[in-house]
Amino acid sequence: MISKKWIALVSIGIILFLVGCQSESAEKNNSESTAEITEIVGIEPGSGTMDIAEKAIESYSLDVELLPSTEAAMITELQQAIKNEEPIVVTLWQPHWMFSENDLKFLEDPKGTLGASENIHTMVRKGLEEEHPSAYAFLDNFYWEVEDMNEVMSKFGQDESVEPQVAAEEWIEDNRDRVDTWTEGIASVDDKAIELAYTNYETEIASTNVVALILEELGYTVELTPLDMGIAFESLSTGEVDGMLIAWLPVGAASYYESYKDEIIDLGPNLEGAQQGFVVPEYMNINSIEDLPTK
């Protein structure tokens, strides 16, 4: 007759064997996933995101190529990889509508090379408060949350037939109480012109379109001018544009801010809790930059 003790020992042995097999399988899958990663899909060369990505690759001695691209092309590659459940690493940031539509995660950055939480600042030219006090007051008041920006971006980011202005109009209509707090006590103007610079990223397109429409409600004629980050800072410092809502600090726009901070007015964050870094789909069995291939 088989003893209960012997049966228990056999059962424990089987359980330990199965756990060991699962552990080996997970390690194998993780190893195979990272072995397939030879590149990190980036965005436009020269952007702040690409600058800090290059520093991170160097700091961790990663054996990967940082592939320059555009935001749209990077998103297309990420979507295709998710569809096929393939390994992929991209430079991405939050807020971004891709986080609302997909299970994504930032890789941990133990060395802090990609920066921690960021804030997006509103900046204006010197003299704006005296020449356009209503615009200045509103821009100083404007502040929203990550979820707000994602809501606007998700409408035009996923569907190219939806114009950013239409998405911004819908958000304003749905959040009229909040908008009214930003403009409370601010005097309307009679068809005065104001120009805002923005970078061609969906985050800045979202905020700039919302702000432009509210300025128009106040009576301004608003011109939106797409510029590279460095040119936007330079244009603001010389008074060629009146304002912008695009400065990621303390990391993303740090070099430009240091160069021009004495020649512009920083109104502070219009959004807090932003983040940028290396992002992978949740199905990938890696959690840290240190899990990527090294030289």
Task: Supply database-style keywords.
single chain, 295 residues, alpha/beta, D-Maltodextrin-Binding Protein, domain 2, Dipeptide-binding Protein, domain 3, 2 domains, 12 helices, globular, cell membrane, membrane, carnitine transmembrane transporter activity, Glycine/betaine ABC transporter, ABC_Gly_betaine_transp_sub-bd
Q: At the third CATH level, what is the topology name of the largest domain?
A: Dipeptide-binding Protein, domain 3
The Cα radius of gyration reads 24 Å
CATH class of the largest domain: Alpha Beta
Order of helices and strands: HEHEHEHEEHHHHHEHEHEHE
Shape label: globular
Secondary-structure-based class equals alpha/beta
InterPro entries: ABC_Gly_betaine_transp_sub-bd
Protein name: Glycine/betaine ABC transporter
Keywords: Cell membrane, Membrane, Transport
Domain ABC-type glycine betaine transport system substrate-binding: 35-173, 193-292
Structure explained in plain terms:
- By secondary structure, the protein is α/β, with parallel strands linked by helices.
- It has two domains: 36-116 and 278-291, D-Maltodextrin-Binding Protein, domain 2 (3-Layer(aba) Sandwich); 118-273, Roll (Dipeptide-binding Protein, domain 3).
- Helix content is 47%, strand content 21%.
- It is built from twelve helices and nine strands.
- The strands form two sheets. Strands 3, 4, 5, 6, 7, 8 and 9 form a seven-stranded mixed sheet that branches.
- Helix 10 (202-217) links the parallel strand 6 (192-198) and strand 7 (220-226).
- Helix 8 (164-174) packs across helix 10.
- It is globular and about 60 Å long.
- The relative contact order is 0.20.
